[in-house]
């Protein structure tokens, strides 16, 4: 058997079977990518600058925005290159890097969303003890666990996947190097690898999802006890953005990783992957800014401060000019 390491490239089929769709996808994905970069950078910027956003929720949101920027950057530039030009190849090294980086960041996001749900549970159900429960040391530890879990999963799954013998098979029926599509290139029995992928998906997808649902179950229970419309509105304002992000991300990624051999995943897999790799990171900052008064207020303060600085600078320049003229 000839391992694929002797080959220096892979062929990414992507959407080449629908050439009329590639032009449209190029424009949509390019716009989405630019919005992802701008939107998530703004969230990181205002969360770091504005003193009113120095809370655990925005600490974790900053990490989520950083994950989204890096996640899309590991995939989209290569995708745009393949959509625009006739070449649909990626180097073996580039494929390995893309596999490790995207797997690390995707796994990190799964854990991070569960951590953010726990933060919302503490804010709603333990409001008097929130500051002591979500202390800076615990927040940093939870963020570190999220990143280390993602790195550990990528090192295990990525390495096992890349070591599979492929007997010269180079044609990847996907638009980026992802584990479910990579293991299908193997020329040996991959049943054990599929079981490993399923177990990893249980741990990194369904377990965090169960923790998220449990946290929101306690939140709903606490709000029902209060029996107040204002409490419902406050809880929805606190948790609504996170719930929408969780629904978008988990709703798409579970279809690929829990049942990778299903007919639905096989037929619509590339479009589902396109949703959670491109569209979800674009929508996340829009969801958090449009539905969150604190973020909108911080953004307004930042813009007003910048405009005030510009006005003072122009006034200083004008006064200096008048002084020189006199």
TrEMBL record:
It comes from the Eukaryota. Keywords: Cell membrane, G-protein coupled receptor, Membrane, Olfaction, Receptor, Sensory transduction, Transducer, Transmembrane, Transmembrane helix. Residues 39-288 form the G-protein coupled receptors family 1 profile domain. It is found in: Cell membrane. InterPro entries: GPCR_Rhodpsn (IPR000276), GPCR_Rhodpsn_7TM (IPR017452), Olfact_rcpt (IPR000725). Its main location: membrane. One of its GO terms (cellular component) is plasma membrane. GO terms for molecular function: G protein-coupled receptor activity; olfactory receptor activity. PANTHER family: OLFACTORY RECEPTOR. This is Olfactory receptor. The lineage of its organism: Eukaryota, Metazoa, Chordata, Craniata, Vertebrata. The gene is LOC100759985.
């Amino acid at each position: 058997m000839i391992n694929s390491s002797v080959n220096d490239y892979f062929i990414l089929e992507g959407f080449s079977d629908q050439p009329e769709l590639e032009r449209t996808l190029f424009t949509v994905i390019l716009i989405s990518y630019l919005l992802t970069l701008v939107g998530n950078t703004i969230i990181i910027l205002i969360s770091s600058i504005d003193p009113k956003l120095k809370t655990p929720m925005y600490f974790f949101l900053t990490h989520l925005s950083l994950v989204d920027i890096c996640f899309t950057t590991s995939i989209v530039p290569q995708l745009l290159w393949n959509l625009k030009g006739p070449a649909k190849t990626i180097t073996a090294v580039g494929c390995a890097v893309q596999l490790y980086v995207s797997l690390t960041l995707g796994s990190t996001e799964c854990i991070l969303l569960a951590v953010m749900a726990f933060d919302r549970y503490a804010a709603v159900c333990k409001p008097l003890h929130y500051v002591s429960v979500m202390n800076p040391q615990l927040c940093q530890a939870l963020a570190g666990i999220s990143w280390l879990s993602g790195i550990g999963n990528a090192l295990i799954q990525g390495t096992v996947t890349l070591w599979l013998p492929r007997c010269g098979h180079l044609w990847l029926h996907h638009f980026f190097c992802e584990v479910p599509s990579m293991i299908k290139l193997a020329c040996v029995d991959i049943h054990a690898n599929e079981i490993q992928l399923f177990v990893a998906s249980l741990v990194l997808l369904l377990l965090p999802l169960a923790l998220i649902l449990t946290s929101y179950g306690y939140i709903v229970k606490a709000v029902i006890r209060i029996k107040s419309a204002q409490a419902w509105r406050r809880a929805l304002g606190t948790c609504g953005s996170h719930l929408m992000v969780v629904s978008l991300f988990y709703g798409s990624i579970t279809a690929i990783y829990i049942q990778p051999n299903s007919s639905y995943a096989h037929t619509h897999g590339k479009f589902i992957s396109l949703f959670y790799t491109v569209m979800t990171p674009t929508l996340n900052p829009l969801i958090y800014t449009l539905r969150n008064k604190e973020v909108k207020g911080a953004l307004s303060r930042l813009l007003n401060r910048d405009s005030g600085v510009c006005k003072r600078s122009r006034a200083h320049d004008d006064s200096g000019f008048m002084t020189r003229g006199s």
